[in-house]
Specification:
The complex is a heterodimer. By secondary structure, chain A is α+β, with helices and mostly antiparallel strands. Chain A is 37% helix and 11% strand. In chain A, helix 3 packs antiparallel against helix 6 and helix 6 crosses helix 9. Chain A is elongated. Chain B is of the alpha+beta class. Classes of the chains: A alpha+beta, B alpha+beta.
């Protein structure tokens, strides 16, 4: 196995050899190397079951969760290469500085519920209504979609584009049956939704199988366009006042 | 004793500092901020990765949306009986009374729970709960909860310090005065001065080999409180979750939600025998189905006329039954038993109700749970013991130091019911945040923390770098896990516990000799050396308390004392530090008020 070792200023791929045990995932191998050969090998992890989204990295160049990638997915004689996510500044080894994502998250206009439906202060929502935003709630904030998105990865538009992960977050609230906030102008300006040209790379890498482009981004784009650019709607608004 | 600022240490000032950003820590931070306090939140991982995110089944609250007759009294009674009457009764009462409001509040903050047909929050059945009581989102309830709380906290003006580990809670003039920590990224130290400190650090499961807990669960809050001089209780009570994955080896211990059984999953041994019918304890006779037919009828919806399946007994009972089946030679090929939902529910239903279990088995074990049974066995899951707190305020025996969630003791007695943890986090997280903010307002900023004390702690933390060729900290951690797994596991006896105590002494020496090379920047070897202090302390607490309690009750089973001893009922083992020595003593719990005692005895 080859693992990137190094810091922002200098680094290299280092080769480690170990015996693969039954059912082993890439994270197990990294941990074994850490415990036996390289105690200072930096790696993030928590749940080891694909639920927390901490152990994101690039495995043979593909953005993946290390805990959900089995060694047996690769031919036995192949050397597996593990490198850090490319779209974020490196801290050390496999750990990158993802703090930008938390800044973006903070700026999304917060959830604002309508007045309660019942006198006891509760709401009524039906399963078919909640299922749509529930899909986006599966997001584990692994940031693999951010990593693969060429707007961020290649063009480094971090200052102008919130990225697929936070379009998904915005979609949770935009499609929340109770929410009354209007995020369309935010999405268009600061969020930079126009940068997405729906190549669907994000959808392909999502470990939670969220249909990011089709179910979250495209409907959001439609809402934004409806609100600002649709000439028919604009004419209609003019006519009806 | 000088109070000049220690060079190179970053200083922060807060009214309230919360250590830990799982459900309890986030809820505490939100409440303290709502009280007008300036709040700092410290988390060991990135925000939103705490253990709560892994919680699957749901949050227990007597909302009464599925079974209208459910109310706090029934929930209280279930909690006390599940806890083998060892719970702090007032905490169990507050929890049962306030949980419904805390769940509804989450909905007001944006949570999307699964719904009933009439559009209210749906509730699912779970072990030890008389009625369907768990508000849930498929099998990823914890993820929903943490995301909602995370967004709420961030929009409440709480400062979040990520990837920051606390190594000491300094004490000044008899009260907790803040937190000394280091940032994982840079290895630099920070001193957080605060009027009140809330511990919400979770559990201690990383002291065992087979565990459902992540690297973070090294007992930090338990240790910080102990080190600061606060008392801890009930450390012998450890919950082994009955259903962890057992195969392949790399996934051993990963949690399989109790929701599988809540949705109708059955347990069978290698002979195909549905063994749980044989393990219904005296206290619960009559509450559970007597035949497979009755159990099936309950699963498919006729809950008025039929009783629930015995798979939904409390976790301690189910875990011990599984161990017995395996010990007596009726285990599955990889040393577990079989959990089968495919035989009881159609594939689409399973995928809708248990999507992450489907995914987890498919990806990690190559098992399709809609077609074949899962192989499962007990895994360390939760510690019932923790910091001794006041039921109303969550303040520990050290003024200004609060604890909420798993690191606090008392609420769950000798065994926690599934689903009671998520609601515990909300109920007592809120109370701790509120009381912490009030305490800080009332008492003002604490006295200056002596810089000599800070310096000494920093020097101690950096010492492993001077032992570049020292003992490998990962090897010491592995040795500790083996000792605890074999000598202080699900079934214990005096001989094993005494051996464990002796071996822990040896491990303490090895930990002191452990060293690390490399830099201070994001160095997991160094972090592990520092975590060892806490791990060794909580392991010793568990072993000492387990030696004291010469009976079996809930999450504490002694093969040399297999029965419950009425003389030890509602008496607890209290642990505290006396200089360098760990001391234990017994203390009786306050008696239950007559009306609550009657409620438990006669039913709600």
């Amino acid at each position: 196995m080859r693992i990137f070792r190094g810091t922002r200023t200098a680094g290299e791929l280092k080769e480690y050899t170990l015996e693969a045990g039954e059912g082993m995932v890439v994270l197990d191998a990294v941990h074994r190397i850490q415990a036996e050969q390289a105690p200072d090998l930096a790696v993030r992890w928590n749940c080891k079951a694909g639920k927390c989204g901490s152990c994101s990295a690039e495995i043979n160049g593909r953005p993946k969760l290390m805990c959900m990638t089995r060694l047996s997915d690769y031919p036995a004689d192949e050397t597996i290469t593990v490198t850090p996510m490319k779209a974020f500044p490196l801290i050390r080894d496999l750990v990158t500085d993802v703090s930008w994502n938390y800044e973006v998250s903070k700026r999304i206009p917060a959830f604002k519920p309508r007045a309660p439906d019942a006198p006891d202060g509760t709401w009524r929502m039906y399963q078919y209504e909640v299922e749509r935003p529930q899909e986006f709630r599966k997001c584990i904030e692994c940031f693999l979609c951010q990593d693969v998105c060429h707007v961020l990865r290649t063009h480094e538009k971090h200052a102008e584009f919130m990225g697929p992960a936070f379009l998904v977050r915005a979609a949770v609230y935009e499609m929340h049956p109770l929410d009354e906030e209007d995020r369309r102008s935010y999405l268009r300006s600061e969020g930079g939704i126009g940068y997405c040209n729906i190549t669907k790379c994000c959808t392909e890498v999502c470990p939670e199988s969220i249909t990011i482009t089709d179910n979250a981004i495209i409907p959001l784009k439609e809402r934004v366009v409806d609100a600002s650019y649709d000439p028919l709607q604009a004419l209609w608004r003019k006519l009806t006042g | 004793m000088g109070s000049s600022p220690s060079p190179g240490i970053r200083k922060y000032d807060y009214d309230v500092i919360v250590i830990g950003a799982g459900g309890a820590g986030l809820r505490a931070a939100i409440e303290a901020a709502a009280e007008g306090a300036k709040v700092g939140l410290i988390c060991k991982s990135l925000l939103g990765k705490a253990h709560t995110v892994m919680a699957e089944g749901g949050a227990a609250a007597a909302l009464g949306t599925v079974i209208a007759t459910d109310n706090w009294r029934v929930h209280f009674r279930d909690t006390m009986r599940g806890g083998k009457m060892h719970n702090n009764w007032r905490m169990a009462q507050i929890h049962a009374q306030e949980a419904p409001d805390r769940i509804r509040e989450l909905e007001a903050w944006g949570a999307l729970f699964d719904r009933t047909d009439d559009g209210r929050i749906n509730q699912r059945p779970f072990g030890g709960h008389t009625h369907a009581r768990l508000a849930h989102v498929g099998d990823r309830t914890g993820l929903e909860m943490i995301r909602v709380l995370q967004d709420k906290a961030v929009h409440s003006g709480v400062d979040v310090h990520m990837e920051c580990t606390v190594i000491k809670v300094p004490v000044a003039q008899g009260r907790a005065a803040g937190a000394l920590a280091y940032f994982r990224e840079t290895g630099r130290f920070a001193l957080f001065r605060a009027g009140a400190v809330v511990l919400a650090t979770g559990g201690i499961g990383k002291a065992w080999q087979v565990t459902s807990n992540s690297w973070e669960y090294t007992g930090d809050g338990h240790f910080l409180a102990y080190d600061a001089g606060a008392e801890l209780i009930d450390m012998e009570f450890i919950q082994f979750h009955p259903t962890g994955m057992v195969w392949p080896p790399s996934v051993r211990g990963i949690l399989v939600t109790e929701g599988v059984r809540g949705e109708g999953g059955v347990l069978r041994n290698a002979r195909g025998d549905r063994f749980m019918f044989r393990y219904v304890p005296e206290m619960f006779k009559g509450d559970y189905a007597a035949t497979e037919q009755e159990s099936d009828a309950w699963v498919t919806g006729d809950r008025a006329k039929n009783r629930r399946p015995p798979e939904l007994l409390t976790r301690d009972v189910v875990a011990k039954a599984i161990v017995k089946e395996i010990q007596e030679g009726r285990g599955s090929p990889h040393g577990g038993v079989l959990l089968d939902i495919a035989a009881k529910r159609p594939a689409d239903y399973i995928k809708q109700k248990l999507p992450s279990m489907y995914h987890q088995f498919k990806e990690l074990a190559g098992v399709d749970i809609t077609r074949e049974p899962m192989e499962i066995g007990p895994t360390i899951h939760y510690v019932m013991g923790g910091v001794k707190v006041d039921a109303e305020t969550q303040m520990s025996t050290l003024p200004g130091l609060f604890a909420a969630g798993e690191c606090a003791g008392g609420m769950h007695g000798a065994n926690r019911l599934g689903g009671n943890s998520l609601s515990d986090l909300l109920v007592f997280g809120r109370r701790a945040g509120q009381a912490g903010a009030e305490f800080a307002k009332r008492s003002g900023r604490p006295a200056e923390i002596p810089s000599t004390e800070v310096e000494a702690a920093v020097q101690g933390a950096l010492a492993p770098f001077e032992r570049g060729n020292g003992e490998n900290p990962f090897a010491v951690q592995a040795a500790l896990q083996e000792v605890m797994q074999t000598q202080a596991g699900i079934v214990r006896d005096r001989g094993g516990l005494e051996r464990a105590l002796a071996e822990l002494d040896g491990l303490k020496l090895r930990a002191r000799r452990s060293g690390i090379s490399g830099s201070r920047e994001y160095n997991p070897g160094w972090h592990t050396v520092l975590d060892l202090r806490a791990l060794l302390a909580v392991a010793e607490m568990t072993v000492r308390a387990a030696l004291e309690r010469t009976e079996s009750r809930g999450g504490h089973t002694r093969s040399d004392h297999p029965d419950s001893d009425p003389k030890q009922e509602r008496r607890q083992v209290v642990v505290r530090r006396d200089g360098d020595r760990m001391t234990v003593r017994w203390e009786p719990q306050p008696e239950l008020p007559a009306d609550l005692a009657k409620l438990i005895k006669e039913g709600a």
